[in-house]
Design brief:
single chain; 270 residues; seven-stranded antiparallel β-sheet; four-stranded antiparallel β-sheet; 4 helices; rod-shaped
Length: 270
């Protein structure tokens, strides 16, 4: 049978919290200064696979499994809420009806109505104006109330076990977006620099000065020897001036012989 914990530590800035408990259920109820219920959390099946059914005005319903955090023999972690879509409403209603006979009738009826509403919203009518109004008990010496993690659904925050994967995914997305943006910028910059450089190359001029000029444009330089391909095409000695990102690169290919520029062309490799 549910009994009220006579003193509960209140959280600054939050509505008044009351706590009822027995061996199967923990019920936390929040009320505003007028005594109206603004939310509750029904934690059930404490000896087995504990779950939390939560309702808050303006936020709606939540249903989570409570991970005790004690599975590791060398750690004693605080309980946290994790997603759980299975809600055995009929069994929860039955056990709550048995265990709530000691509660204020309005409170028991309010919680029962919300349990029904969660399962079959179309079959429930509006609550009686009297339901959800509770007298506020006199304050007593504060004691521990619901943990910060178990109360996470109250404020609409993600449970900690879901928060870190979300942060990891967000970080990966940001890294990908920044890398993609940098790649686009780098390729466009490389194209612009290579085109400007190649525009200043003059056929017939000495080739030796263009390697130093490439550095002025922040471009890389590579020398290729004279070669003959399998189809007998001959390529003169070439000076490659280039830049880009990974597989997308821009080249200014300068052919030269006898120390003079004999050809030039712009090539994109992607």
């Amino acid at each position: 049978m549910l009994n009220e914990v006579e003193s509960v530590k209140q959280q600054p800035g939050e509505d008044f919290c009351r706590w009822f408990r027995d061996e199967y259920i923990d019920l936390y109820v929040w009320t505003n200064p007028s005594g109206t219920i603004t939310g509750f959390q029904l934690c059930y099946d404490k000896p087995g696979k504990e779950r939390a059914f939560t309702w808050f005005s303006g936020k709606g319903f939540f249903h989570h499994r409570i991970d005790s955090g004690d599975q590791h023999p060398t750690k004693n972690q605080s309980p946290v809420l994790v997603q759980d879509g299975l809600f055995q409403g009929d069994e929860v209603e039955r056990r709550f009806a048995e265990n709530s006979k000691s509660l204020d009738a309005n409170l028991a009826a309010f919680v029962t109505q919300k349990l029904k509403e969660y399962q079959s919203p179309s079959k429930t009518s509006g609550l009686s104006p009297a339901l959800g109004l509770l007298p506020k008990p006199a304050p007593t010496v504060p004691q521990a109330g619901p943990s910060e993690n178990v109360r996470s659904a109250r404020s609409g925050r993600w449970p900690p076990t879901l928060l870190w994967p979300a942060k990891a995914l967000l970080a990966l997305f940001l890294v990908f977006a920044l890398t993609a943006a940098y790649a686009v910028f780098k390729v466009r910059w490389a194209q612009s620099q290579v085109e400007k450089f190649c525009g200043e190359v003059v056929i017939g001029e000495p080739v030796h000065g263009y390697e130093a000029k490439a550095k002025d444009f922040w471009l890389k330089v590579r020398h290729l020897p004279e070669m003959t391909e399998e189809d007998s095409r001959r390529h003169p000695t070439r000076l490659l001036v280039w830049e880009g990102f990974v597989f997308n690169r821009w080249f200014c290919e300068i052919g030269h012989a006898g120390g003079k520029v004999i050809s030039k062309k712009i090539v994109e490799l992607d």
